[in-house]
Amino acid sequence: xxxxxxxxxxxxxxxxxxxxxxxxxxxxxxxxxxxxxxxxxxxxxxxxxxxxxxxxxxxxxxxxxxxxxxxxxxxxxxxxxxxxxxxxxxxxxxxxxxxxxxxxxxxxxxxxxxxxxxxxxxxxxxxxxxxxxxxxxxxxxxxxxxxxxxxxxxxxxxxxxxxxxxxxxxxxxxxxxxxxxxxxxxxxxxxxxxxxxxxxxxxxxxxxxxxxxxxxxxxxxxxxxx
Length: 226
Fold this sequence. Notes:
Mean pLDDT: 90
Distance between the termini: 7 Å
Structural class: mainly alpha
Number of strands: 0
Strand content: under 5%
Low-confidence stretches: none
Largest sheet: none
Number of helices: 8
């Protein structure tokens, strides 16, 4: 594959990461709860404000990559290391999105607006994930660890995804309780609430509708493997 084809693939995948990061920023701005994979970095940021959500995000992804290496052993392939730059790119894109929405307005207080922002986050996340798949460039460790566990445990990807998401939310709730005496956040920023459930349940459903449009528009742009 030539450099032009690689640039196209990674360009589309990077666009996907940008859109998912925007979804993270909007979900935080909704103050109604955020997607399970973003719960641990956000609650850690609320405890240690000097370290950004994006930094905690790539740190979590590095833990996921190390876990994959331990599980797979000699089966851990060199190409899996592409998850490392992807982790940094995605982490700092999340920081940029959060900064952008912080500059626009304060967290939503109207429940109707909160709900609309959560639904907007669902749509953006669905589109962004599909762009990552279509581009077939970056590999996000949060998705790869689910695939690795599903393969090793011989369970469906969807089943392991639910288990991983529930685990991340449970760890976040436990940390929030010990740090702030609450299960949902720090009392000002909401990390776990119905928005978390909305994002966990509706993103996959939304992709059934958005995938066809993403594929129709971006699919022809992706070079075929030679």
